[in-house]
Specification:
By secondary structure, the chain is of the alpha+beta class. It contains 4 helices and 8 strands; from the N terminus they run ββααβββαβαββ.
């Protein structure tokens, strides 16, 4: 996994799913978490659909149950401006973030995960900030994401990054409350 390179991608319609439009891949600003000596500095790299295998590998190191590339392909079906980014620390993937257009002015941050060895180093914050910059650059006015109530570190990051809690819903698949956050860009 650490040997993968991230060439620039020319992204348009997803190769096998005609209805999925991936966002153009452009350079993201490097968001530095190095304000504190315990913080890592990650380079957030946009990736295209050819890197779904890497995304699945990273996902499986963070979340259970394990998923395959087709899980992501199904989720992206009919979605516009799918944007995937990977945080690299010393040329090693450390985490990822995925989002897509929810409405013409709202970008939905669907998944964010940081590998266990890189947690509590500011990687998640750097991924979120890079996604905010990307969404702003693409004309979105609002960010939205949902988080299970049991994921306390993510709830903390949401508050720290200026998100407002706008709702709660019960998710029967996880038997937990899901907290809904939004932030104006």
């Amino acid at each position: 996994m650490g040997s993968r390179l991230f060439p620039s991608h020319s992204v348009g319609v997803y190769d096998t799913l005609e209805s999925v439009l991936f966002a153009p891949v452009r350079a993201c600003p490097m968001i530095s978490g190095a304000q504190d000596k315990n913080m890592a500095t990650a380079k957030v790299v946009p990736v295209g659909p050819s890197e779904l295998g890497l995304i699945a590998e990273l996902y499986n190191e963070v979340f259970t149950p394990k998923e395959v590339v087709e899980f992501f392909q199904r989720r992206f079906r009919g979605r516009y401006n799918v944007a995937m980014m990977v945080a690299m620390v010393e040329d090693r993937p450390a985490g990822f973030i995925i989002g897509f257009e929810l409405m013409p002015t709202t970008f939905f941050s669907w998944l964010c995960g940081v590998l266990p060895d890189f947690r509590r180093q500011g990687i998640c914050t750097q991924l979120i900030q890079a996604q905010h910059a990307w969404a702003t650059d693409h004309g979105y006015q609002l960010m939205r994401f949902e988080c299970n109530n049991q994921h306390r570190p993510m709830l903390h990051v949401a508050i720290t990054e200026g998100y407002d809690l706008v709702g709660i819903r019960y998710d029967s698949s996880s038997a937990d409350n899901v907290v809904i956050f939004e932030k104006e860009l």
